[in-house]
Specification:
Helix content is 20%, strand content 29%. By secondary structure, it is α+β, with helices and mostly antiparallel strands. It comes from Neogobius melanostomus (round goby).
């Protein structure tokens, strides 16, 4: 039996070890109810903090295996995005008929090395260097500057899997133990030594939840104008809620459902000077982040709210209207 890890959303994840033994799905529900979600890991810094939070226990994290149809390519090095149009696949590739990650072969690095499978190679590179070579820029640099290229096929940091994070984030970071076949089971766990393995989702373990910076949201069941709501939140909590990330959006959606009004004020406002929508924390609203009911309708004196029900669309309302609102607060 393992303990689960839950995580709650923020710019810097705060991990919380939950010493209750649950199945993966029950751990997910717990984390979403009391924090944000099961732990997501973005890089080796997160991995080290996760290992420390686990206190030597075997715990659930937020990685799970989706359907085979959802398999995607990723680069091993965090932050390097895979773009099919930039890659130089051999004719007839990529396919699933070639070299598998479990087959020994060489891999690109700067010194002589033994033959390893892909996971062993990734582990070696992360331990001795930074990572397997990742991204077109690094490959081009290698081809331009490396005079003694190997005469055998070599692994690079490109892999394909159908694993995804519980909170819907696009982190491609994986830290499988080097002798693991992650396709054997459907849910991921952190082992006592800090490496990852897969396990049956029905098994019970402790788990880790995350909290971000750490922010939580509170629904205020008072009807106020947008400006009064902002003053209320800043005086008693931190500010009107902002959610410029998918996981934060989900947190606010849950709070919106608790409101008494049909829509709730959130930390969105339109600035006539810039002719842009801004969050109260000063960030611009990305074209890819919004969920507007009517994206083309903009005007001075408008502020942003969220529908209480349905698909929780963002709506634009005059600032003098009075609605419930959602405050962001420190944990």
């Amino acid at each position: 039996r393992m303990d689960p890890f839950c995580n709650s959303l923020s710019e810097n994840h705060v991990y919380h070890l939950i010493n209750k033994t649950k199945s993966w799905s029950d751990a997910q529900q717990y984390c979403r109810k009391y924090y944000t979600d099961l732990a997501t890991v973005n890089d080796m810094t997160d991995q080290e903090r996760l290992k420390e939070a686990a206190e030597g226990k075997q715990v659930w994290i937020g990685l799970y295996q989706m359907s085979d149809k959802q398999r995607e390519w990723h680069w091993s090095q965090p932050g390097v995005k895979y773009n099919k149009s930039d890659t130089k696949w051999k004719t007839g590739e990529p396919s699933d008929n070639g070299t598998k990650t479990s087959n020994p072969t060489h891999f690109i690095k700067t010194e002589a090395n033994p033959e390893m499978n892909w996971f062993q190679a990734q582990h070696f590179c992360r331990e001795k260097h930074t990572d397997l070579i990742s991204g077109v820029d690094q490959l081009n640099m290698y081809n331009d500057k490396e005079p003694n290229k190997p005469d055998k096929d070599c692994f690079i940091g490109l892999f394909r899997d159908n694993w995804g994070w519980s909170d819907g984030s696009d982190s491609s970071f994986r830290n499988w133990n080097k002798d693991v076949n992650p396709s054997d089971n459907k849910c991921a766990k952190l082992e006592e030594d800090g490496g990852w393995d897969s396990d049956k989702c029905s098994n019970t373990k402790p788990f880790i939840c995350y909290d971000g910076e750490c922010l939580k949201n509170r629904t205020i069941k008072k009807n106020m104008t947008w400006e009064d709501a902002m003053d209320y939140c800043r005086h008693r909590h931190r500010d009107l809620a902002w959610f410029n990330a998918p996981n934060l959006q989900r947190m606010v959606e849950k709070r919106a459902k608790m409101a008494d009004s049909e829509v709730v004020w959130v930390g969105l406002h339109y600035t006539c000077f810039l002719e842009e929508w801004l969050w109260v924390n000063g960030h611009y609203v990305s074209e890819h982040d919004h969920n507007w009911e009517n994206p083309r309708y903009n005007d001075c004196g408008l502020n942003g709210a969220m529908e209480r029900g349905g698909s929780n669309k963002w709506v634009k309302r005059s600032s003098w209207e009075k609605h419930n609102f959602i405050c962001a607060k420190h944990c």
